[in-house]
Every structure is written in structure tokens, then in C-alpha cells.
Amino acid sequence: MKLKLLFSCFIAAGIAVPAFAQEPVDAAMVQKIREEGLNHSKVMETAFYLTDVSGPRLANSPGLKRAQNWAVNQLKTWGMANAKLEAWGKFGKGWEVQKNYAAITIPYYHAIIAIPKAWTPGTNGLIKGEVMLLKADSAAELEQYKGKLAGKIVIFDTKAPTERTWKVDAARYTDEELAEMANAKATPEGPRRNAADAAQMATFRKLRAFRATLSQFLVDEKAGLVLSQARGTDGTVFTTNGASYADTAKAVAPELETSSEDYQRIVRLIKGGQPVQLEADIKTQFISDDLQGYDVVAEIPGTDKKLKDQVVMIGGHLDSWHAATGATDNAAGSAVMLEAMRILKAINFKPKRTIRIALWSSEEQGLFGSRGYVANHFGDPKTMELKPEQAKLSAYYNLDNGTGKIRGVYLQGDSAAAPIFKAWLEPFKDLGATTLTIRNTGGTDHLSFDAVGIPGFQFIQDAIDYGTRTHHSNQDTYDRLVQDDLKQAATIVASFVYHTSQRAEMIPRKELPKPQRAR
Amino acid sequence: MKLKLLFSCFIAAGIAVPAFAQEPVDAAMVQKIREEGLNHSKVMETAFYLTDVSGPRLANSPGLKRAQNWAVNQLKTWGMANAKLEAWGKFGKGWEVQKNYAAITIPYYHAIIAIPKAWTPGTNGLIKGEVMLLKADSAAELEQYKGKLAGKIVIFDTKAPTERTWKVDAARYTDEELAEMANAKATPEGPRRNAADAAQMATFRKLRAFRATLSQFLVDEKAGLVLSQARGTDGTVFTTNGASYADTAKAVAPELETSSEDYQRIVRLIKGGQPVQLEADIKTQFISDDLQGYDVVAEIPGTDKKLKDQVVMIGGHLDSWHAATGATDNAAGSAVMLEAMRILKAINFKPKRTIRIALWSSEEQGLFGSRGYVANHFGDPKTMELKPEQAKLSAYYNLDNGTGKIRGVYLQGDSAAAPIFKAWLEPFKDLGATTLTIRNTGGTDHLSFDAVGIPGFQFIQDAIDYGTRTHHSNQDTYDRLVQDDLKQAATIVASFVYHTSQRAEMIPRKELPKPQRAR
């Protein structure tokens, strides 16, 4: 009866599961894990060190190094084995802000909210000058500014983004949204490219080409400072990079990503015939002494003779953007994964398979830390040449969607994992984790594993204010962490890791992907 | 039949209206006003000059003077009579920010979002130093810091306010909320003070006394800079004053109202045993050359022999706080009132009664501009000694609740005005203005008129994000103005003013209030 009910339940959820699959759950161990994770948590303390104490953790920055070193030491303190920094390959230059001041001085004084774009240079001390509104959509139109920009502050006639949304900033998944995910057949295929797409693509390419031209023009003309409009409102400023981190990167002009309100005020004034003067003092520092990228790794070694060479991995990226301390992106995921390791150690668990944590770097620039690690250990997705370790990694679990609690798992197309995860989620119904979706989710490090045929999963997490306020913004600070959510996540991850490490078989795999080169 | 229907409608709305009161409405003139106000509006242009061009408009600041002078000139340009600045009495010093820079430098660099409190001094150039966490709730506890604060940066162990509300920032009144207001019998009487209130009051007095002690201690000890926590999250910082504007004001220490996220980061670090260093360069300017406060006034003179000495007034305060350009508080109301005057002039209206606009100053410090004007022209609410002009002012209409459109009128207890306003609102049903409430509303300049027995009204306005984001914050900028709402408000005000100026009788009055001294 129970099995039948379970079966029909899965049918309802759109995922076909064989009726004989009754995955065992160790209720006593789950209880131990819950007790440690929910009632003796250290996750907020960990998050404090990763955020407030370490600072911004841009790839290869001093802040990231502080956090990496703290994590290695903390993992050692907790008794993990093989805790270390592991080089994954060449990344490029580190970079950090060392002074950031900009203010309107005419028609009246007003300090603006603005953030230097990552990997852009500073102003070489305090500069002052009139802001020039540059209107050009082509190289030809740029010509009129030749010889006029040296030392000047430049702004563009960019449209205001500051529309009220009349929506809440922070929200959790509704039951309806979760049901929709559970009932999904698969991630919808994107529409085939058509003529309209081709036209759009051509426009985009043209725009990108012009941006490169513009960037070079601003350098050649020795523009003193460029203001670009940031996404975000109300003092929230989303940041990006303004130049390449490569050691061979071309020079760019100093560039400030400016809050939309301050940006639009300047644009309105100039367009209204009111001259605007600005003063700014931006100092940024490039760090080139070590171009290698590193991941933090540590283990709880397996103890079963036959299985200890097999591995279950958990991870998340530790690097962040530079305008805040990357609390939800992704100190949250890093702290949860560290906490999951701590929980398992605290209850003195001796796993059959080896449990390994990895905290990636340079995720924000293209999942480089995990891709490099995967290339070094497991295989090359371009050729599908695999290494022996590939066959021994049961699964990789990732967390990188903010501070929100776990609501379930993206199966990433691995339908055979559904009955297993269904059983493992069962003890966490009361904590809101119930949903399996066959869908893929992208944008983070489980993809690096998935690309070489290793089961790689990102959990479904409540968004809270990830999209509206924190993701890559100057507001991604410790304040945004929801303590109860992080405790819940660490507890569930620890339980998943426990069960994966003890399971008779490894997590079933999808068909091996085709080599990327052949696709 | 129509009257009967009207009557039952008023019953439903909780306001008893005599069945014979059928107030005339001039439909043709309403149409003219709508055409000018909705289709040929200048309200956004006016708002641009009051906000972006003038800058922050703190009482007696250069920004306010710019806006006042612009308004006087613009009123003249539009052809108003008697446009001028009118002194209302002594206010105190002007003040403005001339440099505002502060950043954490240790454990890593991070420029903070913080605003000097109004009327506080600067730092006398760049200062650097460790931040000291001061824990004291009494003068005795302060003793431990004696001799230790000179030049130091001081912070307090204040609780974090950064709770997610999970509510929308911006909203309009719902039909239910409007119905509740319409059905109200009167503003609920506050509960009588009891023993618990007395205890609370005593606590408050103690706290206030300690604050004064603390403030003096910080000055005596020559603290270099004080950080206090601002209300607001996500980069939104609400500001206040940190000292008196009086020319005789006591000295205070420099004080920065710091965004809650930056403030809490510093507090967490220090409490976590991590020293924090800050650098700051704050320059503020006091302006003492003229301590008088001024209101902007202008008129469209009455043309009816018998009625031209009678007046209808409209107004709103033009002064703002200093962290932004006071767009919703209250450039919005000022721009709408200026626009209402412009509309009436543009349609070449020659009123029977004189129409007068007044844009107040020093409202934020206690409705001083309107109180002073009322004292000079109409009477003294303390003694209820009235001047002849008091008998000749039909009504005063105020706008000061943000950018939101008009949804109706607070009758301020003047139930005899209900049938009149009901009729006058009728042509604006399609624009969402329908509600009369017998309730009082407070906090702004109509109170100064109400206090001497003159019908004074504030319109009901949609809140939008007034309470959550803009009211007294660093985000109260032009971007927050809702163009369609301001057009609607100006159109309705112009129509109200038209009808008030032409009406056979003045607006009926409530019983004269008792002298405040006698209450």
C-alpha cells in the first residue's frame, strides 16, 4: 500500500519511478544530524568569518585569500584530513579597491553611491572636472569627441531603469510554484534560432563591437573617469567587471558603476542645460604575484575497504564580487557546506566512502575553479577523455542560490536519482524540503561535473531577495543571511552526504554526454 | 431621486449631510482645468528645478534659497501678482554638506554609505583611527571612557534594524482601506494616560536626559567622529538632525548617520574581536548671515468687488532634509501647488476671491514657516487672539504626503465641508479621487491654520513608497516622482481652488478652538 501510494505520488510529480525502489533512510542518523545542525549550529559564525572578517572575495583578491586561508585552517581545526589550497590552473590578476570617493560638486555638493568596476584602474589621485555627456552609437559619431576627453569625466545618455516594480523584494517559493517544478517533464528546449534571432544576434554583435571601440577610444583619449549606470535602485548597486583579469589584458579607462539615481540626476542636469562638475578619487590595486587560481579542499576519509576510494563531494564557490562581502553569493553556500562537514565530524561519523568538500574560486568569471578541478581530476568535457577518478565520484552537491533554505533538488535530468532523493528528503518535509524537479538549473559549479558525466546537483532554494537586492550587489552583506535557512540547508546537505557515502551503490548516472567539440 | 441617492450614499459613507445641499460644480471649467492639467502639464519641469537643480533644501540652506528664488521668479514669469519671499520670523542657522567621505580601512577597504546629521560640524580634514565601541547607559558608565576619546571614532552597541519585511515597498490605497477611512466616525481619541504610560514616559525622559549627557561628554572629550545607526536598509538611509539650528546652539561632535548594513558590520567586527579602522573627511558649512525664515508667496488677485478681499490659500512646504533632494517630501507638493497656480493662470481664470500660494520653510523642524505666517496674518493659537484676516480666509489646502495621487480629502473634523467637497470630487472619480474622511491627519502645515479656526485641509494621497523608501531618506530623488500622479493632483487642486474662489459663501468653519494655553 505504501509503495503504491509512493508510486502514484511520483506519477503525480511527473517523474516515473520503479515501484520496487524503496531507498533506505537511516532515521537515527538523521536525528543526530538534525540535533547537531539545528541546535548546535556554527553556520553563522562561519559566515561571519567568510564575510565581515574576510571582506570582498573577488577572484584572486586579498579578500579571497583571507577567506581561503581561514577555511583551510578551520577545516583543520575541525579535524578534517587533507585540508589545503589546491591550484586548479592559471586565472589572472587579483584586484581590489583601496579608495572609492566620488561626489557632485556643481551645482551643489552631493556624494554619489558608485563602485569601481572590477579590474579597472584608479584615477591617480583626486580629479575634478565637468561631466561630459557623450552621445555616440558608432565609431563615426565618436570622432566629434576626438581630442576633447583628456582628463574629463564622461557619462552616457542611458535610459533610466528606476521603475517601481510594486512587487515584494523578498519571497519564498509558493506551493504552486513548487508543484509546477515538480510536474515539469524536462527543462523546456529553447526555440530554434530563426531569422529574427539572427537579426538580434547581429545587433548584439554590432553593439559589442562598438563597446570595444568605445572602450579603446576612451583609453586612447585618456578619459579621466567613465560613469556607467548600475542596475539597482534605492542605494542598491549591482556590480560587474569593467576589464579582463588576464595578465595580458588591454588597458581601460577608470570606470565607476554609478547608482541609477545618481547617474540619472547627472544626465537630467546636463540635458537640462545645467553643467555638472564631479570630483573623484579612485584607487585600485592589481595583484600579479601569483596568477594561479586555487580551490579549498578537505576530506573526511572513507573507512570501508572496498568503498573508501570512492568519493562524494560537496561544494560551492567562495569567490564573490567586490562591492560587498558576497554573503548570499556565495558565503552562504560555502558556510553551509563547511557546516555540513562540521556536523558530520561533530557526530563522529566514519563514512564508508570518502567525503570531500571543495570551495571553488573564479566561479563568477566562468566556473573556472570547478572546471579546472574537474579537468585535473575527472576529465575533459571537450573530448570526453575521462580519468580514472571520474568513475569513483558518486555525486557532487552544490549550493549557490543565496541564503534561502532548501526546498528540494534539481535532478538535472538524472531521473534515476529521483527515488533516492525522494526518500532522503522525506525526513525534512517539516523543514519545507519536498520537491524534486527533473529540470536542469544552470549558472553554477555542478555544471562542471555534469559536463563529464558525474551526477552533479544544485539544490532548489528559496530566492528571498537574491534577484532583487543581493546577487552581485553592494548590499550582499551578512545582514541578508537568514540564520534558520542556513541551518536547515546544512542539516539537509549533511544528511544527503551521509546517505550518499553509505549507500550500497553510487548515485546512478545519466548517459555520458557527447564531447562538447562534437556537439 | 438623485438627491435621495446622494443622501443614502453619504449615510453609507458615515458622514451626515443635509439633503438640501447640492453644491454646484462648473463642469465646463473643470474640463478646461483637466485639459490644461492633464495634457499640458509643466509639473515635472517644475519638480526638476526644485529637486535636481536646487539640490537639498534644508531649512535656511543655500539649496532652499535657490529653490525659493526660482519659485518666486517662475511665479512672476507665469504672471502671478505679489510674488515674493516673506519673512515669517527667526529660524536659525543654515547648514549644508560640503564634503562627505568615510570608509573602513581595516580589516580591508570599504567605503561606507553614511550622511552627516544636519547641523553637525565636520572633521576638520581627513581623520583616521580605530573605531571604539562605546557601551554606556548612564553617566556613571561613561566615566570609564574619560580621557580616551580624543580624536577617536565612536560607535554604539545598537541593535540591527535590518529585518526583511516581506512586504512591498510601494503601494496604493486599496478600495477597502478607502472605505474604512470613509466610514470612520472621527479620528479615534487617544487612550488616556495611565500608570504604564507614565512609566514609559519616565523611561523616555531618562533616555533623553542621558542622550544630552552623552552628547556633552562626546564634545567635552573631543571625540573625532560619532557613528549612529540610520533607519533604512539596502542602501536607503533615513536622516535627521544631530544638533540644534539655533544660533545659540551648543556644540556637538561630528556625527554620521550610517547605513544599517555598514554600521552593523563595524559593530559585529569589533564585538567579534576584529579591530576596525576608519577614515573620514566631513566638511559642513553653517550659514549665519540671515537667521530669518522665509515663505514664498504669490497671488492671483480677486476681481469681485465684494469678495476680492477674501482669500483661498494653497500650499506645501518647500524645505526638505539634506541627504537627497526632497522630491516626495515635499518638492512633489510644492510642484503640484505651483502647477495648480499655473493651470489657473494658463486658462486665464479671473477669480472672485484672491487665490494665494505659500511655499513654507522650516516645516521639518516644527511647521515653523506656516506657523509664523499664521501668527503674522491670522492669529495666535495660544491665546486665540485673532486678526481681521482670519475672518477672510475661506480655506487652506495643503499637499505634503509624497508623490501619490489624490484619493480624497481629510475633513479634519469639518463635517459641514463634506457635501461641498463631495460635489467637487465628483468630476474626478475617473482619476481615483473619491474619498472623504471626517478624520484628522497631522504632521504638516494645514494644522497651523486649523489651530486658529481656519478650515485647513490635507488631501488623502496614495503612499507609494513614502514610508519605506523616500520620506527623509537619501533616496528622496526626482526618480521617485510619479508623473501621472502629480498631474492628477495639480488638476484636482486647481479645480478645488477654482470652486472655493467662486463659491457664494466661504467654506463653513468648525467651532473656534479653545486657546492652547487654556487646554
TrEMBL record, chains A, B:
Protein's organism: Mucilaginibacter gossypiicola
SUPFAM superfamilies in the cross-refs: Zn-dependent exopeptidases (SSF53187)
Subunit structure: Homodimer. The monomeric form is inactive while the homodimer is active.
Biological process, per Gene Ontology: proteolysis
Identification of the protein by name: Carboxypeptidase Q
Pfam hit, one: Peptidase_M28
Subcellular localization, as worded in the UniProt entry: Endoplasmic reticulum; Golgi apparatus; Lysosome; Secreted
Stretch forming the signal peptide: 1-21
